[in-house]
């Protein structure tokens, strides 16, 4: 069986990014940049004040009890003249520093009377000036191609003064949930043999968070003819297909056979990981097909491990950014792993990570509190509280 790293490498090697499109910046949150975003001008464009107060010349301080206030500077409305010796300009945060001024004295240290202002001790040595270009310069790369545009990243993107951005085309995803027992949530309680379809909703949500567009989400019994129909339709309409369930080797496990008519090439199946051994990946033409376990918890864990990187790859983003395992302290002991690499659901606390009590694949309720995955190499010894482990935000 392949290791996790080997499977990810194979997936990245066999998937090519989709095309690109230009969209308004205001619509770009949740998308991947398809080219470097560069600044159109310096930021700030001139020296600006970082405080409300008075702009002065340092050589004017100390010679008189007060300075003459000869004007005002506001953001978007600079003082047009040049500041002379013995003069001051009323200035507000973000306003351009007037010509001749080299210091801003905070309002808390000033006393204004008529058209004069005097200053109390303690206002130095800070000058309270942000210099031109101190944030970035014209043509600087503000965001690199492949960057995922989160709401906070929209701030520097907007500051670069680009109204239109080039982004990767949003992948169109088709989801096929297999299983005779699956019914829509809200109906299962009335049918003794039914199980609520919990995973296809979660997979669809993960796709949307990953920048993709879910164009089809179907639920199908384990009948080869019907599954084949859904598979062919999905390949015809979508850029990527995600299948849940039917991945084992029983007579009713038809996830891979359902793609026979599409000419799908199987790239890998059966991995040395827990949970997620049944995960498989293939190509129907150039279109990726990702098979996830039918167990909802295993499916959600492996969707985070495989589907998020796959979506990033389709959009030109780096796979490794979606698999950023970082060292995190354990707040409680963790038992040793078996022969397979193990991904342990855990919740974060002020003291560190705490593995959730029930790690069984069929336990869905722990996902309500689990927000990290701890990566445990195969054959690892038990970990004590306080030890550091590699973990991925779930």
Mean pLDDT across residues: 93
Task: Profile the largest sheet.
Answer: 6 strands, mixed
Q: Which blocks of ≥5 consecutive residues have pLDDT under 50? A: none
The CATH topology annotation of the largest domain reads as Molybdenum Cofactor Biosythetic Enzyme, Chain A
User: What structural class is derived from the secondary structure elements?
Assistant: alpha+beta
Offer a few descriptive terms.
six-stranded mixed beta sheet; 4 domains; Molybdopterin biosynthesis moea protein, domain 2; 5 helices; Molybdopterin biosynthesis moeA protein, domain 3; alpha+beta; elongated; Molybdenum Cofactor Biosythetic Enzyme, Chain A; 394 residues
In a nutshell, what does this entry contain?
It is built from 5 helices and 26 strands. The chain has helices at residues 4-14, 154-159, 199-209, 224-237, 296-314; strands at residues 20-24, 37-38, 48-49, 53-56, 67-73, 87-91, 103-106, 110-113, 116-119, 129-130, 141-143, 164-168, 172-178, 182-183, 195-196, 213-220, 240-244, 265-269, 273-274, 280-284, 287-292, 326-329, 341-349, 352-355, 372-376, 388-393.
Structure write-up:
This protein has 394 residues and is of the alpha+beta class. It has four domains: 4-17 and 169-323, MoaB/Mog-like domain (Molybdenum Cofactor Biosythetic Enzyme, Chain A); 22-43 and 135-168, Alpha-Beta Complex (Molybdopterin biosynthesis moea protein, domain 2), CATH 3.90.105; 48-130, Molybdopterin biosynthesis moea protein, domain 3 (Molybdopterin biosynthesis moeA protein, domain 3); 326-393, Beta-clip (Beta Barrel). The chain has helices at 4-14, 154-159, 199-209, 224-237, 296-314, and strands spanning 20-24, 37-38, 48-49, 53-56, 67-73, 87-91, 103-106, 110-113, 116-119, 129-130, 141-143, 164-168, 172-178, 182-183, 195-196, 213-220, 240-244, 265-269, 273-274, 280-284, 287-292, 326-329, 341-349, 352-355, 372-376, 388-393. A six-stranded mixed beta sheet has the order 7-4-6-5-9-8, with no helix packed on it. A six-stranded mixed beta sheet has the order 16-13-17-21-20-18, with helices on both faces. Strands 19, 22, 23, 24, 25 and 26 form a six-stranded mixed beta sheet that branches. The longest helix has 19 residues, at 296-314. It is elongated, with a radius of gyration of 30 Å. The two termini are 25 Å apart.
């Amino acid at each position: 069986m392949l290791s996790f790293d080997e499977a990810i490498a194979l997936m990245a090697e066999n998937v090519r990014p989709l095309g690109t499109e230009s969209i308004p910046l205001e619509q770009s949150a949740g998308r991947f940049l398809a080219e470097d975003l560069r600044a159109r001008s310096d930021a700030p464009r001139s020296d600006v004040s970082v405080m409300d107060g008075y702009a002065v010349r340092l050589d004017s301080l100390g010679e008189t009890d007060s300075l003459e206030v000869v004007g005002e500077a506001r953001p978007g409305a600079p003082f047009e003249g040049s500041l002379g010796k013995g003069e001051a300009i009323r200035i507000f945060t973000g306003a351009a520093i007037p010509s001749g001024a080299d210091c801003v004295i905070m309002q808390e240290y000033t006393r204004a009377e008529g058209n004069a202002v005097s200053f109390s001790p303690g206002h130095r040595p800070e000058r309270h000036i942000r210099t031109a270009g101190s944030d970035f310069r014209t043509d600087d790369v503000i965001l690199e191609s492949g960057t995922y545009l989160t709401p906070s990243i929209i701030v520097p993107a907007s500051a670069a003064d680009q109204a239109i951005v080039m982004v990767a085309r949003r992948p169109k995803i088709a989801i096929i949930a297999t299983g005779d027992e699956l019914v829509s949530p809200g109906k299962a309680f009335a049918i003794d043999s039914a199980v609520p379809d919990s995973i296809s909703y979660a997979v669809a949500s993960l796709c949307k968070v990953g920048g993709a567009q879910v164009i089809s989400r179907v639920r199908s019994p384990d009948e080869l003819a019907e599954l084949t129909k859904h598979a062919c339709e999905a390949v015809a309409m979508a850029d990527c297909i995600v299948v849940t369930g039917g991945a084992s080797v029983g007579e009713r496990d038809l996830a891979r056979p359902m793609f026979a008519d599409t000419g799908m090439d199987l790239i890998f199946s059966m991995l040395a990981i827990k949970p997620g051994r049944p995960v498989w990946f293939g190509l129907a033409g150039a279109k990726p097909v990702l098979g996830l376990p039918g167990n909802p918890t295993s499916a959600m864990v492996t969707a985070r491990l495989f589907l998020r990187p796959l979506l990033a790859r389709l959009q030109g983003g780096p796979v490794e950014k979606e698999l950023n395992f970082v060292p995190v302290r354990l707040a409680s002991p963790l038992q040793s792993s078996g022969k397979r690499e193990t991904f342990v659901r855990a919740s974060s606390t002020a003291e560190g990570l705490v593995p959730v009590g029930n790690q069984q694949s069929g336990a869905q309720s722990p996902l309500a509190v689990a927000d990290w995955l701890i990566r445990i190499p195969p054959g690892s010894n038990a970990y004590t509280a306080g030890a550091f482990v590699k973990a991925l935000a779930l």
